[in-house]
Amino acid sequence: MIVAFFSLRYYAQSKAAFFDDTFIYLHIARNAIESGTFQYFPLVNRGALLASSPLKLCILTIAAWLSNLLGYTERSIEAARVSLSLYGVLLYILFSFFWLKNIRYYLWVGVFYFFLAGCLDTVFEFEGGLLLLWSLTMVMQLRQEKIPNWQLALTFPLGLLIRPDLSMLIYPVLLGMIIRRGLLQKRHLYLIISGGVIVICIWVVIAMLMGVYPIPVTYWAKAAIPKLFDKQSLLEVLFVRLGRIFVSPNLGLSDSNLALVGYVTIAMVFWLVLLIDDNKCAKIGFLPEVVIVTLIAGTMFSRMPANYWWYYQNIAVLICIILLATIFEGKYLLKRLVASVSLTVLVILLSTKFIVNPQLPWDFARDTRAQGYKFIGEHATGRGTYILPIIGEVIIKNPEIGMISYFSGRGAWIWDSAGLAQPAIELGALNSKIKYFYPKRLWESPNVEVHRIEGKSSFPIYEVWALDDRDYDAARKKCQIVIEGAAIGANLYKTNTN
Q1: Phi/psi of residue 247, nearest 5 degrees
Q2: pLDDT tens digits, residue range 456-478?
Q3: Looking at the domain assignment, is residue 116 inside a domain?
Q4: Among residues 141, 215, 127, which one has the least CA distance to residue 181?
Q5: Three-class SS string for 191-211?
Q6: How much is the pTM?
Q7: 397/338 same-domain check
């Protein structure tokens, strides 16, 4: 309770630094409440879903609705904080129904869940919390003597709605546990497949009712253009950045030392899973899962963008899941002891980040990009344009669309130069075979989509950036126009939309 209190108070009252993509989820949730749709830009009626985790979006929408009932009806930073806090509580409560016969264990899971929420942004803001509670719920169900079939049938397919790519690293392990329990029988397979069909059908119906195509368009964008901002893949920088997730920046470790932390952490997990077990047969039994997961991870991470920092946080959560599951599931004392010591070390490292505002380029408590993007959003007209000082009324082009969209409201429209909202802006995405998983309506580029905005032809298009700092002289060397009071810079992209 104490850990939960401090984490929730931190989120609800004082957290000031957020990833820009956090506001993509918040914007869609607010659109659902205000316009009855999960579309990112309802103004142009484009049924693209920009939330990579449909289940996270659905729960966050409920949390945003609850925040409305509490009086947080505006698109403010305070409303964002409250919505995220309510999401964290709601998520924990929802999974508690699967733990009613093991509530004592779930209370300990809660302690760790809320502790991680105070250390890692992904727990409340992205998929980390869902991954943690879903994975441990599955492990709990599979360790019971009498497995509740209906629970197993409904919870197993949820990974597809949490985040399919990361769930693919968990499913081989869960299948291995199912095989060891002798559950790979027609009756159980029928239940799991039936549960999967039911869960997917429910989501498809929700997506249709909310006006979006059920497969998030973000999968297409990120898979087809993985190196848009960073020349390296996630796999190439994994160990350095994983070390940075666990170690406080105040320690001043070099990249080589941070990489060492990452290597040791991953090696410890492999050693724990492969080299220590009850008997030799068990060791051989775990080898297939390790090989499969390693191949999947290597393939995916080599194609994943390196610039999304919460991906590394999600991997850190996966490591914690393995350690916690070993502590709960392991029957061999030495194995549980090693997992306990390893988890304790990671907790000590992470405790230096507990309820400490992260150092991000989007911080409302410091002079960062956050103030500039908030300023832009607050000057939205509600018809897809923005009235900015010096420039006048314009259409904006920008690759960081989360905060701008959230503060703009449901009448937002942005020419997304990163290709997340409109993947077809990049040739790599347009030429990718992934596009055939989506209807042709979603193949439209912003050049086409902009013409759906009423009265757009008389407005110029400007590339608009929020400034990382307040060095306006340096900004003027790169930008045609610098608006000091707004901390933004701009360059003309097109004189009009024709």
Answers
A1: -105, 135
A2: 567 899 999 999 988 999 999 99
A3: yes
A4: 141
A5: HHHHHHHHHHHHHHHHHHHCC
A6: 0.93
A7: no
